[in-house]
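go over this chain:
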Amino acid sequence: MRGRLPVETSREMDEVCRETGNRQMIDLAAQEAGKHGDLDLSAALFERALEIDPEAVKTRLGLLTTLHLQSRFEDEIPLIKALLEIIPNEPTLHRFAIQAGKWGGDMDLARRGLELVRQHDPRAAEAATRFLNADIPPPRRMPRAPQ
C-alpha cells in the first residue's frame, strides 16, 4: 500500500496487533504505520510493544524516531538517556540528543550529545556545534492529513 493508511485500516491494525501480544508483530505494525504517516498509531504501538518487553532496544529506537518525527522532544529525553547507557556509540542517538535536548529544554543532554559527536564523529562536530548555537526553532508537528 502506498500513501496514508485509511483510518479504518489503522484502527484494525491497532486492534489486531494489541490482541496478539506479540511484540515483534507489534513492532512491525508500528514501523508500517510510521512509514505510512500514521505517527500517532506508530507511537501507540511501539509503547504497547515496550509494555510487553521494556528492554527491547530496537523498539525503543523505533519509538524514539517516531517521537522525534512528531516533534515530541520532551518525551524523547528519558528514552535517549536510557539508550545512551546501552548504545553510546549510536550516531543517530547523538543527533537526537542534541536536537531533543535543545528543543526539549535539557541543555545538559544536548551538550552530552555534542561531546559524543566530537568523540565518535569529529567531522560532524563543527556542524553539530553550529546547530546547537544557532537560533533554530523546533519543527512543528504536522497533523494527520484528512482521508
Remarks:
- The longest helix spans residues 7-20.
- The helical segments are 7-20, 23-35, 39-52, 57-69, 73-86, 91-104, 107-120, 122-133.
